[in-house]
Amino acid sequence: RIYPLMRVTLTTSDGASVTVSRQLTKHSGFIEKAITDMAVDDNAVPLSAVAVDVDDATLKLVIEWLTEHRDDALPYPEKTDEERRADDIPAWDQAFVQKWDTKEDQQQTLYAVITAADKLDIKGLLDMTCKTLANKINGKTVEEMREILQLECDFTEEELAEIRKENAWCEN
Amino acid sequence: SFPHVRCASIACLISRITPNRMPRCHNVLDSDSDSEIGWSRTLDLPRSRQSRKIEELVRTAAQATANEPGTSKGLRTSTSRLFLGPAAKRIKLEVREVEDTETEDDKRRNIANWPGDLLNHLIDYLPIDDRIKMRCTCRRLRDIVDNQEMMHTYEIYIKRLDEAEIGLFLPVSRKEGRFVIHNKKFTWKERPLLRTIPEMRRGMVNWTRHHRTRMGRIRTAIKAMFRISMIYRINVEQVNLSNSFIRDLIRVMNGNEIHSLDLSVQMFEQERPDLTLLNNVPAKSIALSVRLKDREPLPHIERFLNISIHTFKQIIIDVRQDSWKFKSSLHYRKSYEEYGINDAALMHYMSGDVCNFLRLKVICRYITKEGVLSAILHLRTREDTEASRGFCVLVHRQVTDNLIANVKSLSQFGDELPTTDAAKTNYDGHRSYHTVGEYLEIRNIKQDMTKDKPPPPLSEVRYFRKGSDEKEKYMTCRVDDDIRWDPFEQPKFQHRPV
């Protein structure tokens, strides 16, 4: 049972503490499980103690998103392959992602939020951020994908030649 | 090292132009003393004084810049002036501290280091072509994409874009399944042989010689798709059918099963494509829409039908004469009527074990009411009831007169179901008889009766016996065989063929 007035203190990897309502943390499967399993005193949940690498800045973004989506229905609806699509991001979420500073920072912040959402098990936020990243790389060439995702090509020369030969059609 | 390389290159160039004036002296030099006397260790060419001066200045400036207080991100900048030649040059130096070891933070923000579940979640939102490209970026992502559960691609298209181009089209998303996102236009870089140009003008060289390269690329693309996806339907539109193309198509699908193959092609007499090759296609159903370039190939199609009836579960055949060529609707119709199947052939097709549904979009002139009733009786008395079985044929209207009443006069096959309002108000107010065990529908074809010589009135008879496998939706489905289909409409091909 969730008590809306109950507050939870979250400790980040860089030592900062943030106190939030249980109404927000109910969307995080990880925090809910931590509260249940760890039987923590005073409802203080030290995230760093359970190997969650979420820094203060990222956690603030996560909380901002949770605050906006606090009234979303739970459990989060599971989507089939047919229902899953990347172009249905709500307007508020789009603006939420776009307001992150410069392009480089936005990418890094996006990655940080995705990993945080994954570790904290916030399905709605994870879906939204994955859709955003999928839209970024949609229709790009392999080289552009590597650049956007900041990936290093670790194929051997032979593998690379074979890949280029196989996928010449999608590079046009 | 930039000025050094540049000066060395210039010196190399000078040495090539005037070899006698600048002799190469590396034979007499001690390599250890290179730095003292100013010889390039790599190229054994003399370095200019300016290049050494630039190198020294850059090194000093970089050290000075590194000692200055920088920004929070460790970036330090300075601007230096170099006096080279008549004008002073200004260079800007940026020094950034780089840590050799990758931090935990960097690891987390490199998506190749993400856990597999998270990467799978991201890839779930990518369409098939992006997934294929994603697997070419690095090994980790290749393994993730390859090991992911097979995705479902509803359909892909192979289309003729214009007379010399073939393209592969992919649906943009599952919602807009028929919308085209990628117009993969493969450029034709090879010039055709001069002697083939007159043949092409005559329409004799269609596929075999010059389309193979493009088809090779399409084949590679589809094979890559098959690696990570299950494709429900492949649509081929507006291509010239030839043996070579059919073989290519079979090679594309080799080892991968699809549900249906939809071929919308044109056929030339001189190519004489062997349609029986299509029986090697690993598909459950086939829809063959042929635009005849000559009057001859209809028996050809009947030969194909006789064999494919034992291969495919669902067959839809549409044949059209190329009316622009003959400029006469008489010829246009005549080709159907001369070679239409008869009652015995319909019974033969219905008595097969494999084919569950046959739709002939040709005028079956020789099918009579007795033939239709015999086929219905045969389907009723078949022992196996697992799969729904039926047919849909285009016949002269006199065949359908009192057909429903005749079927009703036979012993009732299941309880009669009430006709829905939707059926009553359906196109052309078609008549239907609907019971628990069977479905009969008669649709009159709209025709232009204002002509001097009005065409014979036609009707389409659709009958199927319902099975227990709930596959009746294939029989009533109006997607693949639309209700407004008209045997006399002009062909849908956008371009005049070669």
UniProtKB/TrEMBL annotation, chain A:
<dbReference type="Pfam" id="PF03931">
    <property type="entry name" value="Skp1_POZ"/>
</dbReference>
<comment type="similarity">
    <text>Belongs to the SKP1 family.</text>
</comment>
<keyword id="KW-0833">Ubl conjugation pathway</keyword>
<feature type="domain" description="SKP1 component dimerisation">
    <location>
        <begin position="123"/>
        <end position="170"/>
    </location>
</feature>
<dbReference type="InterPro" id="IPR016073">
    <property type="entry name" value="Skp1_comp_POZ"/>
</dbReference>
<dbReference type="InterPro" id="IPR016897">
    <property type="entry name" value="SKP1"/>
</dbReference>
<protein>
    <recommendedName>
        <fullName>Skp1-related protein</fullName>
    </recommendedName>
</protein>
<dbReference type="InterPro" id="IPR001232">
    <property type="entry name" value="SKP1-like"/>
</dbReference>
<feature type="domain" description="SKP1 component POZ">
    <location>
        <begin position="8"/>
        <end position="71"/>
    </location>
</feature>
<dbReference type="InterPro" id="IPR036296">
    <property type="entry name" value="SKP1-like_dim_sf"/>
</dbReference>
<dbReference type="GO" id="GO:0006511">
    <property type="term" value="P:ubiquitin-dependent protein catabolic process"/>
</dbReference>
<dbReference type="Pfam" id="PF01466">
    <property type="entry name" value="Skp1"/>
</dbReference>
<dbReference type="InterPro" id="IPR016072">
    <property type="entry name" value="Skp1_comp_dimer"/>
</dbReference>
<dbReference type="InterPro" id="IPR011333">
    <property type="entry name" value="SKP1/BTB/POZ_sf"/>
</dbReference>
TrEMBL record, chain B:
<dbReference type="InterPro" id="IPR036047">
    <property type="entry name" value="F-box-like_dom_sf"/>
</dbReference>
<dbReference type="InterPro" id="IPR001810">
    <property type="entry name" value="F-box_dom"/>
</dbReference>
<dbReference type="Pfam" id="PF00646">
    <property type="entry name" value="F-box"/>
</dbReference>
<protein>
    <recommendedName>
        <fullName>F-box domain-containing protein</fullName>
    </recommendedName>
</protein>
<feature type="domain" description="F-box">
    <location>
        <begin position="108"/>
        <end position="154"/>
    </location>
</feature>
